[in-house]
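Hello again, I could really use a second opinion on something today. I've been puzzling over a protein and I'd love to understand its fold better. I'm sending you its amino acid sequence along with the backbone structure tokens. It would help a lot if you went through both lines with me. I've dropped the whole record in just underneath, so have a look.
***
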Amino acid sequence: MTDLAIRLENISKKYRIGVRQSNYRTMRETIMDKAMSPLRRITKSDPSLLTSPYEEIWALRNVSFDIAEGEVVGIIGKNGSGKSTLLKILSQITKPTLGYADIYGRVGSLLEVGAGFHPELTGRENVYLNGTILGMKRAEIDRRFDEIVAFSEIGKFIDTPVKFYSSGMYVRLAFAVAAHLEAEIMLVDEVLSVGDVHFQQKCLNKIGELSSGGRTVLFVSHNLHAIEMLCERVLWLVDGYIEAEGETSNIINRFKGNNQLSPQSGENGRENYVNAEELIRLLSVSMDEPTNDIFSISDNLVFRMEVDTQTPIENAYVSVNIRNAQGDLVYWTTDVGSERYKKPMTGRDILLCKCPPRLLTPGTYTADFSIMVLGNPPRVIFNNPDHRTVFEVADLESIFADHNIRYPGATAVPSQWSVERLELLPHVAKN
């Protein structure tokens, strides 16, 4: 029988909205707190003076699961579903209101920016502090120190207090510490999204390396592609409850099916969803002429869909939905207005969607497809997340690539630029 790393039994967590949480405070905040103490005593003695009574919410309700040693488990869900609260309980930052958690091993955690490091200490001092908390001897930390600094890529700032770090610098050092010190269990929250794309990929590779070495990992992310690559099991949280758990691809497909609404669908679009496999079969999905699934930023992106329609369908339109590595929809296009759309969808067809060059900035993307019937609201008749393709866009030739400049936005569509010379500078005109 495999040994347990984590066991949760009926964990619930209640918060009171309006009650100030304790946190690191500056001297100014401490002085202001003392100055306000008399007023607080007055309001406590006279409840009628309180203008904003607190509200209770449950961030987690009756959460139970076991995680075995060496298992890599993903946790997914919308914002506010309880993912981060769960990791805070496991890392003992906060206590559950009900239930209990048994942790069998030392825990290294990378949660929100600011957790785990003391802002007044330098990066070096925080590395040693975290190692000491994990029960490591100074000699053990010494052996790991250079590796931690090299991975974080912030060497010249290692003796600077972390309160002066940018969020990206903080995440680099925090991940390096969590990944390289002797913790049997690693908790990673969505905080990785703060770093740049290069460092995110470096971290994901490191997580894969740690899992291969027997480390237990809990990974919270909206990056479903990363979850699929790293995790063998997934927990899906909805409003503080476990909606489902199981094999990764199965749970992610259910999650996508539940959330996969077209931009036109509106909040109630799910009521108009019919997964009509008996009407339409998407036989294949591919992309034209990729090199090892990598496209140059200057290439056309051509999506190829082979569709078999069992019954003629009027006013049906096809959409292509492109998502980035974080799962965000960055581009959506449809064939409404095309020659194909003007005819009923019937029989067996090959549909080609050609997107212009420089549409997407370099990165990893996922494309999936929907077939809908025009109406108010539109009716989804086909949307199967199993039919998707993963591809990468790379900048292999531009001046940005020559200077190793990263694109800051989601698209790189060319614009037309011109200049109108109004007046030459005096010294130029003389020449």
